[in-house]
Amino acid sequence: MLQQQLKDPSLLKCAGFINGQWVQTKTEKAFEVFNPSTGDVVANVADLGVKETQLAIDAAQAAFEKWREVPAKQRSSLLRRWFDLVMANQEDLALIMTFEQGKVIAESRGEVAYGASYIEWFAEEAKRIYGDILPSTTSDRRSLVIKQAVGVVGAITPWNFPNAMITRKVAPALAAGCTIVLKPASETPLSALALAELADRAGFPAGVFNVVTGTDSKSIGAELTSNPDVKKITFTGSTVVGKILMEQSAKTVKKTSMELGGNAPVLIFEDADLDKAVEGALVAKFRNAGQTCICANRILVQDSIYEEFIRRFTARVSEFVLGDGLSSESTMGPLITKKAVAGVVSLVNDAVSLGAKVCIGGNVGSNGDYFFEPTVLRDLNASMRLAKEEVFGPVAPVFKFGSEKEAVAMANDTEFGLAAYMYTKDHGRIWRVGEALEYGMVGINETAISSEMIPFGGVKESGQGREGSKYGLEDYLEIKYMCMGDI
């Protein structure tokens, strides 16, 4: 069904991509990819494992020896060609994403453009990898610094943004002169394979960009982290898995960059523009059905405006239309799996059992087992799991605070530190609270904070390193100092 709807059916690939070739297992072992809106099987994809991962690493290492020497301008041109192809096939890529991930088609189109923006940005940054001439201690020496590609990169990406989470890693790696072995989530491999097809069309040499699809994530991940030819691991996913990968990578002292779990608070003070705060919290909470790491996980509202915020926010949430992501009428799609729905149900039930009240929603959707109603909960407290745990679903828990000091303490009372947001007109408070929040990113009177030009990443147990911006390239480069004597 999906293939029939694509303008270019050849973008639907079901094999791994290694050393410029589409690869199946010898037994043609495959796993099913489901459409979470309908439960239908979209495709059967090659279930590769450790052996194929080793082949991909070998191919990437062999390709690295030549790719690292390709002039920056040539790497830039190839990346630009890849960007153009992605944007020319935006509608097909969006359809593939909605079929395998479930998000509404408008969001999928937006993600393709957002993902492509990283390819464009790093195509430009590839030509701006600068070194330095340092002051020398003696007159007969010159000290200089150059930056060189790290080497083979192992990338592991999640299902919630199956396009953008890939381009945020692959584009800077290729721009820096690295080669890459990508392990996409088994729930959403089709977007990754379509990107690989377009990269191949753009002209990247064989072995530079490899994709290993498979369900044995532990074994594939273990090979990536233990193989000495892999010099860097980049991962987006849960903190639990991130810690395992970091521990495994330590044995060969790999560079790592980790974008891990979040527990984003939105602090809404009594002097805020309430209309803007409602809209901002709405977007931050319910984008991709609440399945993003920077979603508003806790909405903290000052007591004097609490009731009015609840009233306005609930009214806006009531306008959502739950349904198949391909329907133009749908404004929210399903969750990725039944297990995800069960996790959301558990968190909501825990809160209600401890005194939280449901303002709207609170139930599995009538559309099917993968859907959960957009939900608003009030009267929450610190004893509830929603105060501590990340809810990957369309549930907005609204907490109450009294003072600025209390709001900051509530916001920081978590091991996570990815993104936080606040709404206030007080410029003194903006500085005080903005500096006090223990987060890598802070949105002030704004929740749409992400772009290819900003450093995306967190502190504490939300990870290390940054993606996007000029800082995003540094994680794929090593600094080499060279001392020239006898001048």
UniProtKB/TrEMBL annotation:
Chain ranges of the Aldehyde dehydrogenase domain: 22-481
Signal peptide positions on this chain: none
InterPro entries: Ald_DH/histidinol_DH, Ald_DH_C, Ald_DH_CS_CYS, Ald_DH_CS_GLU, Ald_DH_N, Aldehyde_DH_dom, Aldehyde_DH_Superfamily, Succ_semiAld_DH
Domain of life: Bacteria
Alphabetical list of Pfam families matching this protein: Aldedh
Gene Ontology BP annotations: gamma-aminobutyric acid catabolic process
Active-site residues per Swiss-Prot or TrEMBL entry: 259
Keyword Transport annotated: no
Keywords linked to the UniProt accession: Oxidoreductase
Molecular-function GO terms, alphabetical: succinate-semialdehyde dehydrogenase (NAD+) activity
PANTHER family noted in UniProt: SUCCINATE-SEMIALDEHYDE DEHYDROGENASE, MITOCHONDRIAL (PTHR43353)
Family assignment from sequence similarity: Belongs to the aldehyde dehydrogenase family.
Name this polypeptide is given: Succinate-semialdehyde dehydrogenase/glutarate-semialdehyde dehydrogenase
Species of the source: Marinomonas alcarazii
Lineage, opening ranks: Bacteria, Pseudomonadati, Pseudomonadota, Gammaproteobacteria, Oceanospirillales
